[in-house]
Structure formats: structure tokens, C-alpha cells
Design brief:
The protein is mainly α. It has 17 helices and no strands. α6 runs parallel beside α8.
Length: 296
């Protein structure tokens, strides 16, 4: 047929039968692409073959801006081994001034392992434009288990205004690691805002903060969370107060049972009072049977 007679001339639309497929190694475009990939591999090989421990510390700092993630991690590890004081100033400059969030974060990590992170510098990071940097600054501040009063005030302010949920999550985690007089107000402020009621993790993470201090700082817990403002805050009312009643009753000391009485008295209405009574009953059942409730 006429069609079959032209099979030798053209196939697959208008492409000549003897045309080189575009995926063939001999196709000009493919050769160009392979050449570019080979050059990239050669460059990468030359870069990663560097003896990073032989480089000056300031050169390692410069590598933190490299697009090769392996190289950045390796440079940071060498900096951690050295803890060279001369890198502190350039690393701080990178953290504060880099327009690239990832570079700022890598520089912060390098600064921390180099011994250049302190609370005075952290104060600047709590207002950093990058939520990732703010989050890690909050995390590092919790590592020591205590902060200066000025830093505590800044953390409290951040809890009142922070818009990023991951930073609020880290604030809650750090609050648990700090003393009650610092950590509880941070948790309280996040709860008051009621931004995270439907979050998968944050409500119970915030309860974890309160529970950590519920026995050793029971009076402060009751004063904060059983206040009129506390009862009006949905997350405090729905997540914290009944659990605090149950935990206090289960502990069963004179102080925690007095806290139960205060919690019950603070309930603003019959519905809230009934819920607190149910939580009290559950807490008493959670106690060992010997002498449960003898101090009530």
C-alpha cells in the first residue's frame, strides 16, 4: 500500500526513520547533557576529596554556604572538634545577616558546637526573621536548664506573640526543662492564646509542662491556671484543669489535696464543678489503696 511503501522513509509522525532517538548516547543533546553531568560529578569529586581537617578554620566557615550538604556537615563537624574562638565573630555575622535561612541555621549550629552561643547572643535570635533560627535558639536555651531573668522575660514575650507553631512547640519543650517560675508562665501564655487547641501534639505537650511542676510547684500551678482568666481560656479549661485536679488527687500529699480544694472552689459554675469532682474521684482511684483520701 501507499502507506506501507513509505514505512522506510518515515515512522512515528514526521521523524525520519533513520533519525537518532533523543535518548540515544550519540544524540547531540544527550552528549551535551552527559557532559554537563560528568563535569558536575568531577567538580563534586574534587570538592569532596578536600582534606577538611587541613583547612584553616575561617575557610571551614566559608564552606557553610556551599550547596553541597555533605561538605557543610563535614565542615561543621571539624569546627566542633576544634572549638576555635576565632570563628565565633564570623559565624555570628552569618547567623544574623544571611538572607538564606538554611545558611543562617547551619551557621547557628556551627556556632553552638564551637562554643560561641550564649544568652546575650540568643536575645538577638529570639527576634530573628527566620522561625527556624528562633526555634533552635529556644531549644539551645533550654539545654542548660536555667536562664537569666532578662532571657526569661524575652521567652515569655515570645510565647505571647510567636506566630510559628513549631516555635511555640519548642517553647513548650524548653519550658518543661526550665524552673517552674520560668516555665509555667511560658506555658500559660501559649495556652491563653488558644491557637493550638486542634493541634495534634501541642495541647498535651503543654500539659506535660504543667504536670512536670504539678507537685513541686503545686501552689503556683493553682494560682496560674485556676484563676478567672484561666477558666475563661478554652485550652486551660479543657486541657489543663481537670488533669491538674486528677494529678493532685493522685499524689495525695497535704499540699496537693489542699490544691484540690482550691481547684474545686475556683470552678465558676455547676458544670465546671461537676467536671472537677469527677476528676477528683478519678485521681483518688489512681492512688494506692492504703489511706487514700485520709487527709480530705
Amino acid at each position: 500500500s501507499a502507506v506501507s511503501g513509505k514505512v522506510g522513509e518515515r515512522v512515528s509522525g514526521d521523524r525520519p526513520a533513520n533519525a537518532v532517538p533523543s535518548h540515544s548516547p550519540t544524540h547531540p543533546l544527550t552528549r551535551s547533557r552527559l557532559s554537563e553531568e560528568r563535569q558536575s560529578l568531577l567538580t563534586s569529586a574534587a570538592t569532596t576529596s578536600l582534606r577538611l581537617p587541613d583547612l584553616p578554620s575561617l575557610d571551614l566557615v566559608s564552606l557553610l554556604t556551599n550547596r553541597n550538604a555533605w561538605l557543610v556537615r563535614k565542615a561543621r563537624r571539624v569546627l566542633a572538634d576544634r572549638r576555635d574562638p576565632q570563628v565565633v565573630a564570623p559565624l555570628r555575622k552569618l547567623v544574623l545577616e544571611s538572607a538564606d535561612d538554611q545558611v543562617a541555621l547551619e551557621s547557628l549550629w556551627a556556632l553552638y558546637v564551637s562554643g560561641g552561643f550564649d544568652e546575650r547572643f540568643a536575645e538577638k535570635l529570639l527576634v530573628h526573621q527566620s522561625s527556624r533560627v528562633r526555634r533552635w535558639a529556644v531549644r539551645f536555651l533550654g539545654d542548660e536548664g536555667s536562664v537569666f531573668p532578662q532571657t526569661a522575660r524575652l521567652l515569655l514575650k515570645l510565647a505571647q506573640i510567636e506566630s510559628a507553631v513549631r516555635v511555640r512547640s519548642q517553647l513548650a519543650s524548653t519550658a518543661k526543662r526550665l524552673p517552674a517560675e520560668v516555665g509555667l508562665p511560658i506555658a500559660y501564655q501559649i495556652l491563653l492564646r488558644n491557637l493550638d487547641a486542634h493541634d495534634t501534639h501541642l495541647p498535651l505537650l503543654l500539659w506535660w509542662v504543667v504536670e512536670h511542676h504539678a507537685v513541686t510547684a503545686v501552689d503556683q500551678c493553682v494560682e496560674l491556671f485556676a484563676s478567672p482568666a484561666g477558666w475563661q481560656a478554652p485550652m486551660i479549661r479543657d486541657v489543663i484543669l481537670e488533669r491538674l485536679m486528677r494529678r493532685s488527687a493522685a499524689e495525695g500529699t497535704e499540699a496537693t489535696l489542699m490544691a484540690c480544694a482550691h481547684l474545686l472552689a475556683s470552678a465558676p459554675g455547676d458544670g465546671e464543678r461537676n467536671r472537677m469532682l469527677a476528676a477528683l474521684d478519678q485521681g483518688l482511684q489512681d492512688r494506692p489503696t492504703d489511706g487514700a483520701g485520709k487527709n480530705l
